[in-house]
From TrEMBL:
Protein name (record): leucine--tRNA ligase
Coiled-coil ranges per UniProt: none
Source organism (scientific name): Anthostomella pinea
A GO molecular function held by the record: aminoacyl-tRNA deacylase activity
Record's keyword terms, sorted: Aminoacyl-tRNA synthetase, ATP-binding, Ligase, Nucleotide-binding, Protein biosynthesis
Length: 260
């Protein structure tokens, strides 16, 4: 699976994270949260970044001034994909729980929310997929729409500020079947009530992928008016050229054959 890894630069740590990381990083260095996405063309619509609250993340040295926050598993994969300056070697400078990162303010490349977006908790983040960090595009991802809706409703319970989950959802892709807020339309159409409705969310995701890819037209950005199918690789390349993203592949899953 070929992902695009996006670099979300930390602008301001949550107080807990600040405390934990004190003295562990050079003063003038940058730390990036690095979500893996299959939809780089939707980065205009990022409204927050998800971590699994119970997942333990590492902060890994990329070069003198650059560090990535991802799972150990992702760092190991990255080491073999020449992401770190020393091929094959991994240097972990700190460990931190997702729950302690929640509230951190990050700069999300291409996002129309240029002031930054917050790191928020998502219970359904899989530690075994991608980098364990997920960037949220509630206009076009049904999982993200269901999660931000839930977070906004129960902000106190999740220990977050309501406004962090209520960032404006700006339409970025127009589609003939589901309008320009594809995820919202599908969540309502399939009567998805919470992020726990995993079966319907899976179906909504498939529909959103197909419609977005084959029928979607970008409404914003440099490739406004172009078909998603055409614009997608261009947005990806632009992000990579700007060093705001890089290619990241997931190793092949071992398939155990039925015949043994
Ligand atoms: C931004 C985005 C915007 C995404 C969108 C999707 C959509 P898939 O399809 O199941 O292979 N993701 C990445 N890593 C994880 C993880 N560890 N746990 C849970 N979710 C994860 O999954 C690929 C997508 O799942 C990725 O692409 C990421 O969300 C999320 F408009 O990034 B995506 C219709 C989907 N639209």
């Amino acid at each position: 699976q070929e992902y695009t890894a996006i670099k979300l630069r930390v602008k301001e740590w949550a107080p807990k994270a600040e405390e934990i990381l004190k003295g562990k990083l050079p003063a003038d260095s940058n730390v990036f949260l690095v979500p893996a996405t299959l939809r780089p063309e939707t980065m205009y619509g990022q409204t927050c970044c998800f971590v699994g609250p119970k997942i333990t993340y590492g902060i890994f040295k990329v070069s003198e001034k650059e560090y990535y926050l991802v799972t150990d598993r992702a760092a190991r994969n990255m080491a073999y994909q020449s992401v770190f300056s020393k091929e094959g070697s991994i240097e972990k400078v700190a460990e931190i729980a997702g729950s302690d990162v929640v509230g951190t303010l990050v700069h999300a490349p291409l996002s129309l929310h240029t002031e930054g977006v917050r790191v928020l908790p998502m219970e359904t983040v899989l530690p075994t997929k991608g980098t364990g960090v997920v960037t949220s595009v509630p206009s076009d991802s049904p999982d993200d729409y269901a999660t931000v809706t839930d977070l906004a409703k129960k902000a106190a319970y999740y220990g977050i500020k309501e406004e962090w989950a209520k960032m404006e959802i700006i339409p970025i892709i127009d589609t003939p079947s589901y309008g320009d807020l594809c995820a919202k339309t599908l969540v309502e159409k399939l009567k998805i009530a919470s992020p726990k409705d995993t079966k319907q969310l899976e179906e909504a995701k498939e529909l959103a992928y197909k419609e977005g890819y084959y029928q979607g037209i970008l409404k914003v950005g440099e490739f406004k008016g172009e078909k998603v199918e055409v614009a997608k690789p261009k947005v990806r390349q632009q992000l990579i050229d700007a060093r705001e993203a890089f290619a990241y592949s997931e190793p092949e899953k071992k398939v155990v054959s039925r015949s043994g």
